[in-house]
Design goal:
Blueprint lengths: L23 H10 L5 H12 L13 H11 L4 E9 L4 E8 L4 E8 L4 E4 L3 E3 L8 H5 L1 E4 L2 H19 L5 E4 L9 H12 L13 E5 L3 H10 L4 E5 L5 H7 L8 H15 L3 E7 L7 H15 L3 E7 L13 H13 L3 E4 L22
Helix pairs in contact: 1-2, 5-6, 7-9, 10-11
Pfam family, one: Radical_SAM
Cofactor: [4Fe-4S] cluster
Subcellular location: Cytoplasm
Length: about 375
């Protein structure tokens, strides 16, 4: 039986307007609307994106008499920390956020020797219904606003600065939700992330990854934006028969159509596409599937593709498990033999349910 897919979020109100929802023109209009001179918009943006401050009471270049007014109009307290848990000696930190309407979702900070990454959510829950993913099994609550996405980035950048004297370098849209099902808000958030201060955080587009299970028309649309971010395609099977089950959206856009859209992305942007493949014991790890995966990807992309094998992360109630290491190594060997770059992703946060496919906004703090 095919699982029902939800591409539109349930009709729930988004939070009030926040500075991070606004582009440069809209920020100026909002400031003028408050009766303030237009140059205050640049000051506010510089405080938020440059100094990572979201409380006007701390913005010393803003007249004290208007700070309360600005706070009420442009800095509503969108998110509060409901729970936070860490592992890897504090190098991996998962945060459960509670929005103003009680909606919960998660983000994960990961520190590495050469980079610092935040994995952000684009939706509360997910409507894609992939059976091996805890988020997908929980269903979709609603889309996140642009500012709710951007706030995950800002708070992580501030924590890295304050706790580690370090900088945020990478942002991956691999948390809860299907980013391309919340296209306009995710696109706006990406623009805030990559634009230089005072209009954004100034993170390199090459260091921003947008993941998708394969919404082919949206992949093409994103390509035409020419932002230069990395596209990560969650494929998980090289044949339609299996992928129809593992990634139910395949019933709408099959592998051939999705690979064609991803190739269009690669051709348009000149960026190599990352193909994500969760390796599941006795489900999608057979040698013939490795051969088929390598053959299809080499035929579709040539050198403009890389396979990220992800050992399946355990989720509550699932009988599926990661493939044994010898099987994993043989899978990698066979994909490479077809001329396709392939590596096994370093899994972080598994013990705190912060790894790929484990985010479920569990307030129990597993």
């Amino acid at each position: 039986m095919k699982q029902e897919l939800v591409f539109e979020a349930p009709k729930r109100g988004l939070p009030p307007r926040h500075l991070a929802d606004l582009d440069e023109v809209a920020r100026s209009a909002a400031v003028i609307e408050l009766g303030l001179p237009a140059f205050r918009a640049k000051q506010l943006a510089n405080q938020y994106y440059g100094r990572l401050i979201a409380d006007p009471a701390l913005m010393t270049d803003l007249p004290a008499a208007v700070r309360e007014q600005v706070a009420a109009a442009l800095f509503p307290p969108l998110l509060t920390v409901a729970h936070q848990i860490q592992c890897d000696a504090g190098e991996t930190r998962k945060t459960l956020w509670r929005a103003m309407d009680g909606t919960t979702f998660e983000s994960v900070m990961m520190r590495y020797p050469q980079r610092n990454t935040v994995c952000v959510s684009s939706q509360a829950g997910c409507g894609m219904a992939c059976p091996f993913c805890a988020t997908g099994q929980g269903g979709l609550t609603r889309n996140l606003s642009t500012a709710e996405i951007v706030e995950q980035v800002r708070t992580t950048a501030a924590a890295l600065r304050d706790d580690f004297d370090d900088r945020l370098s990478n942002v991956v849209f691999m948390g809860m939700g299907e980013p391309l099902a919340n296209y306009n808000r995710v696109l706006a958030a990406v623009r805030r992330i990559i634009e230089p201060p005072p209009h954004g955080f100034g993170i390199s587009a090459r260091s921003v990854t947008v993941s998708t299970v394969g919404l082919a028309p949206a992949i093409r649309k994103l390509a035409d934006e020419r932002l230069g971010v990395t596209l990560a395609l969650s494929l998980h099977a090289p044949d339609d028969e299996l992928r129809n089950t593992l990634v139910p959206v395949n019933n709408r856009w099959d592998i051939a159509e999705v690979l064609d859209a991803a190739r269009y992305y690669a051709d348009t942007t000149g960026r190599r596409v990352s193909v994500e493949y969760a390796l599941i014991r006795d489900v999608n790890d057979q040698p013939w599937r490795a051969d088929l995966l390598g053959k299809k990807l080499h035929g579709a992309f040539g050198a403009l593709v890389h396979v990220n094998l992800i050992p399946l992360n355990p989720t509550p109630g699932s009988e599926w498990d990661a493939s044994p290491k010898p099987v994993e190594r043989e899978f990698v060997r066979r994909v490479k033999a077809k001329g396709v770059s392939c590596t096994v992703r370093d899994t972080r946060g598994r013990e705190i349910a912060a790894a790929c496919g484990q985010l479920a906004a569990d307030e129990g703090g597993r």
